[in-house]
Amino acid sequence: MSRAAVTSFRRQWPQPKCSFPNRQLRNLKMHYLQPTTLIVAMCLWLAPILPDSPMCRAQAILDGDFDSLPVGTAPDNDVPAGAWHFTQGLRFVNELDDPEVFTIVPTDSFSPGSLGNSLRINGAESALHHVTNRLVDDQRFSGEYTLRFDTYVVSGGGGSIYIAGNHRGGEEIHDGGANHNTDRGPQLVFEPDGRLSATVGSTAPNGPATSRTLGEYEFDEWLTYEIRGNVVGNNGANRFDLYAVLDSGELSEIASNIPFRSRALAPEYIDRVTLAHFGLGNTEQYFDNIRFVPEPTSFGLLPLALFCLIARLLRK
User: Fold this and answer.
1) DSSP of 157-184
2) Backbone torsion region of residue 238, taken as left when φ is above 0, otherwise alpha when ψ lies between -120 and 50, otherwise beta
């Protein structure tokens, strides 16, 4: 808005009628209820919940770009790498004979010219391994959300990423946060043959899951994907859409209305992002720039509604 437009806007805005007997209080009210002051305050209030707000991204998940993490074999059984760790309830499957399954590596070690660090999955074991990152402040989130991530799959490699919520109890509970009946939301698998698939759960408890092919992906180059989902509770209606993010920044839909991994007792909330090696053989995959963003819901409209109410009162 130009300076002239702002001046005109101020002239047209009616001055509030103050009934404060105290001059200092009257001046205080006049200062803090000025339209420009209210607008600035509302912008600051809304900033943390806007979908593209850096504040929102910083609050949702930590160490998603791995750049602040030291290069090395962590995360290991008892040694986390920043926010990435093995939960106590999953250590029975994370007793790694090979500590190189999950490592932090310089990105230019496999992608020449790239900066920073990435997380590497390099597993030759048939065992299942999960490394997880819980939402900050142990949030339990339901509603609409976006998960965007970059990945680089070496030819013949592959791994998995899924979103989950621990419905089993504490973190020490067996398979808490990874139970296939109750906990897992969207689950993507980068198959060694170049297929990108979603693992879709059965509607019957402990029923067999199915692998749904969504498309193909390219080996040995950076790819960016975005999951858009909605956790609506334990009614079997949880679904997500998958997009490829093009170099231009535009989204290209790959598949839509994909069911969650857990369907029989669908998750009522999510609280973590997990990377996994599902015993796919000799796999090698890299992840970077993982961003989990809760979308603004009706809560996001509350500050705007209050602003409109205050503005209406000032006009009286």
Assistant:
1) ---EEEEE---SSSTTSTTTTT-TTTTE
2) beta
Residues 158, 36 within the same domain: no
Q: Looking at the structure, do residues 16 and 39 belong to the same domain, yes or no? A: yes
pTM of the model: 0.74
Summarize pLDDT for 125-181 with one digit per residue, the tens.
666 788 999 998 888 888 899 999 999 999 988 899 999 988 877 776 667 788 888
Instruction: Answer for the pair 146, 168: CB distance below 8 angstroms, yes or no.
Output: no
CA end-to-end distance (rounded Å), the chain = 26
Q: 42 and 27: one domain?
A: yes
Number of H helices, E strands in the chain: 5, 14
Taken as a whole, the chain contains a residue count of 316
- Domain that includes residue 23, residue range: 3-49+299-315
Tell whether 77 and 175 lie within a shared domain.
Answer: yes
Q: Are residues 21 and 166 in the same domain?
A: no
Q: How far apart (Å, rounded) are the C-alpha atoms in residues 195 and 217?
A: 6
User: Looking at the structure, do residues 29 and 9 belong to the same domain, yes or no?
Assistant: yes
Strand bridging mode 128-134 / 117-123: unpaired
In sequence order, which residues have a C-beta less than 8 Å from that of residue 229 and are 6 or more positions away? 144, 145, 147, 163, 185, 186, 238, 239, 240, 241
- pLDDT digit string, tens, across residues 43-67: 445 444 444 443 344 447 899 999 9
Q: What letters, b where the CB count within 10 A reaches 16 and e where it falls short, cover 253-262?
A: ebeeebbbbb
Looking at residue 20, the DSSP 8-state letter turns out to be -
Q: How many structural domains are present in the chain?
A: 2
Q: Which residues pair with 131 in a beta bridge?
A: 275
Could you tell me which residues are beta bridge partners of residue 39? Answer: none
If you compute the radius of gyration of the chain from its CA atoms, what whole number of angstroms results? 24
